[in-house]
Amino acid sequence: MTKDDASAHESRQLLHLVLGGELKDLDSHEFRDPAKIDLVGVFPDYDSAARAWRGKAQATVDNAHVRYFIVHLHRFLEPTGLNRKLA
Question: Which of 10, 39, 67, 71 is deepest in the core (most CB within 10 A)?
Fold first, then answer.
């Protein structure tokens, strides 16, 4: 990896969304009431998203139906191969 490649990699913003709420069933990802989904926030990297996720997950450990998730927004914003097709 060249110096330019390394600095480009370091400056890439990989957005992640943390959200959660009560699930209808423990075997699904369907929320009981989508209007009550807890949108924790959008984070600039996985590490900060994981810290937020861990805090929320630990705070709700007593309710087995509440789950928090990390969504890799950068994968939706820049799907694999899309830039190559448009170039």
Answer: 67
- Whole-structure pTM value: 0.75
Query: Taking 70 as the threshold, does the pLDDT of residue 34 lie above it?
Result: yes
CA distance 51 to 27: 24
d(CA 70, CA 57): 11
Helix (H) or strand (E) holding 10: helix 3-11
51-86 confidence digits (pLDDT tens): 999 999 999 999 999 999 999 998 888 877 555 444
Identify the burial level of 43 via C-beta atoms within 10 angstroms of its C-beta, where 0-12 means exposed, 13-18 middle and 19 or more buried: buried
Pick the CATH number of 13-86 from 3.30.70.2400, 3.30.499.10, 3.40.140.10, 3.40.605.10: 3.30.70.2400
